[in-house]
Design a protein that fits this description.
65% helix; disordered C terminus; mainly alpha; Nucleotidyltransferase, domain 5; 654 residues; five-stranded mixed beta sheet; 5 strands
Length: 654
């Protein structure tokens, strides 16, 4: 009876659920038995039903009961454990997901040809994916494809979600064409028809990849495809339709069609009456683009109120506290706060309003605090490694611009010091060495480097074999790549156990102040720090008794000029008249951008201590020319010393 319930699950979920419940009740009443295959299949059916309707707690509970009904290591045991693993993932219980995966791996270690390795590989792919290790996830996913082709554990329909997961992995790697390819494979292999809401989910994911790629017309097409499927059963798909209409509205927004974005939000609200924080946020961004800053700021405050506990303040100068943010909305809250900080800055700059500018700084600092908290909670070796965080960097950019505007209003020594410190903090978070402080032994780092190198070499060998179309070599190097990844994976697990540590030490770093720098600068040396902040080039200078800041509109072709200059320097024909003249022109243009604004400060200097960032790291400042005279040109008449950053702890300054 349980097998029958399971067999009709795909056609009649409700009937399958009823039969499974009958079986469980019969066993409980008459047999006083908790372990049997018959009972196991009943729990398996209930697990499927509850997982399909996103009742993950119930799916996990009945799944764990079902597991105990089957002998460990059997196919049935692995089948039901697969959805136990999926439930752990859906509930965000990563620790239990890791533990259960390791237990399954231990069960299989003496059976290398078991088809059930696919369950382990799929779980490892999932673990790497949810921890943003897309490179590792891609390797497990490709291994899973090979295993399934060999052992046929999953039917094409059952394997379709794996193709969908690989599509998401390639999206994470920004390999959009691969992502689109695998999502189309998922759609081609599934048995779902255009009456099934499950197919709509595939189309939504495909649309999202096109969205990220910037192909908005294709994204619109597949969001509409998804909506058409869901409208077949509008009453039962109200919530999902609301989400898809919102994604479609977002796409119109990024496409720049604000009218269609608003119309689509109205369609969404006709079906799903609740106006959410996401809705307010999107309308606020549209208002921002249309120059309605006051309206936008109020909408953002309204959005914050909706995702906070015990926070009702409509004053845009006020932010909630960290503990008032609902955990499930922290990502959205971060986006709202970033947008709010930008608007407060723009309003403050336009009105010369110090209160608004300081509120913008406080809002950006709040976002950074949220991100720091996330980093502090990350334990272990791999997780504690600081990854340059876009949110943190963007907020340092905003704080820098706020302090620059404040300093232009107040001309205060304290405001200059705040600006200078912020500029150097920005540089710090872009320097890997300063962001991953650790007390791990040197041997650990060396071992990790070697394992990563082995993986990179395996990647290169596989790429070459694939390019040459050598089937045997492809199979061999795929296995080599898999083993290299497995070795790195095992190494990281070992380190996480032996060296648990927390990060964010950089945030307590004792930064060098202007006074620290002035104390060690020789009289004929000028410290020059370049920062690229949004659409501005900021140049801060410190001499033995002077300090200044310059904000210059950034030219769009700065990177192109630097790249071309380097090409000309390296050219074997650099002294040909045409190339020589082009070199002189570009060199002088860069001089006008980078050196000319500080010309008055360098007339009596013999040394410039330059701290570049981003593309300026690639610029040899020594070859910049003060004149574009084609007949006789002179080089800069001072010595240039490039340093990485002055954020280095003050004791190292000397």
């Amino acid at each position: 009876m349980s097998l029958y319930a399971f067999s009709i699950y795909y056609e009649e979920k409700k009937e399958a659920e009823n039969i499974a419940n009958e079986v469980i009740q019969r066993f409980q009443k008459h047999f006083n038995q908790t372990e049997s295959k018959e009972l196991g299949y009943a729990y398996y059916t209930l697990q499927f039903v509850n997982y399909s309707i996103a009742n993950y707690e119930k799916a996990l509970a009945v799944g764990l009961k079902g597991v105990s009904c089957f002998e460990k290591g059997t196919n049935e045991y692995f089948n039901i454990m697969e959805y136990v693993l999926n439930s752990y993932e859906a509930l965000g219980n990563i620790a239990m997901l890791e533990q259960a995966t390791e237990e399954l791996e231990t069960l299989l270690k003496n059976n290398p040809t078991s088809p059930n390795w696919s369950v382990v590989y799929r779980s490892k792919m999932l673990l790497d994916y949810i921890q943003y290790n897309y490179e590792g996830a891609e390797i497990w996913g490709q291994k899973l494809i090979i295993e399934n082709e060999k052992y046929k554990k999953y039917s094409p329909h059952e394997f379709a979600p794996t193709y969908g997961m690989l599509a998401q992995i390639y999206l994470g790697l920004a390999q959009y064409e691969e992502g689109i390819n695998y999502m189309n494979k998922a759609i081609e292999n599934t048995n779902y028809t255009k009456k099934d809401p499950e197919l709509a989910a595939f189309y939504v994911n495909l649309a999202y990849i096109y969205d990220e790629k910037g192909d908005f017309s294709s994204a619109v097409k597949y969001y509409q495809e998804s909506i058409n499927i869901l409208l077949n059963d509008k009453n039962n798909n109200t919530s999902t339709l609301g989400h898809v209409y919102f994604y479609l509205a977002e796409t119109y927004f990024y496409e720049g069609d604000y009218q269609k974005a608003m119309q689509t939000l109205e369609q969404k609200n006709e079906i799903n009456k609740e106006i959410t924080a996401r809705d307010d946020f999107l309308v606020a961004m549209i208002s921002h683009k249309q120059g309605k800053l006051e309206e936008s700021s109020q909408l953002l405050q309204s959005a914050l109120i909706k995702i906070c506990n015990n926070f009702q303040d409509l004053d845009i100068l006020i932010n909630p506290s960290l503990h008032q943010l609902y955990d499930e909305y922290k990502i959205l809250a971060t986006k709202i706060l970033i947008e709010k900080s930008k608007i407060l800055y723009q309003l403050g700059k336009y009105k010369n309003d110090l209160q608004l500018l300081n509120a913008s700084i406080q809002t950006s600092q709040f976002v950074i605090k949220i991100e720091y908290q996330n980093l502090i909670e990350a334990n272990g070796f791999q997780e504690s490694k600081y990854i340059i965080n876009e949110y943190i960097l963007n907020n340092f950019n905003n704080i820098t611009q706020c302090y620059s505007t404040i300093y232009s209003i107040t001309n205060s020594k304290n405001d200059f010091n705040n600006l200078f410190k912020t500029i150097e903090q920005r540089k710090a978070i872009q320097l890997i060495e300063t962001l991953t402080p650790s007390y791990l032994p040197e041997a650990v780092y060396e071992a990790e480097k070697q394992l990563i190198k082995n993986l990179q070499l395996a990647d290169q060998d596989l790429d070459l074999a694939t390019y040459q179309g050598e089937k045997d070599s492809i199979d061999f190097y795929q296995e080599q790549r898999f083993q290299a990844n497995q070795n790195l994976d095992n190494f990281i697990k070992k380190i996480k156990r032996e060296y648990p540590k927390e990060t964010a030490e950089i945030y307590e770093t004792d930064y060098a102040t202007v006074q620290d720098i002035q104390a060690v600068l020789p009289p004929q040396t000028l410290f020059v720090s370049y920062s690229i902040v949004n659409d501005e080039l900021m140049i801060s200078t410190v001499g033995q008794s002077t300090k200044n800041i310059y904000a210059i509109p950034l030219t769009e072709d700065l990177s192109d000029k630097i790249n071309r200059l380097n090409q000309l320097i390296q050219s074997d024909f650099a002294f040909q008249t045409k190339k020589r003249e082009e070199f002189i022109d570009i060199s002088n243009e860069l001089y006008q951008i980078l050196i000319k604004p500080i010309q008055a400060e360098i007339t009596d200097k013999t040394t410039l201590m330059i701290v570049p960032e981003q593309e300026l790291f690639n610029l040899p400042f020594e070859v910049l020319l003060a004149t574009n005279d084609k007949k006789a040109y002179s080089e800069l008449d001072f010595f240039i010393k490039n340093i990485v950053s002055i954020i280095i702890i003050p004791q190292r300054l000397s």
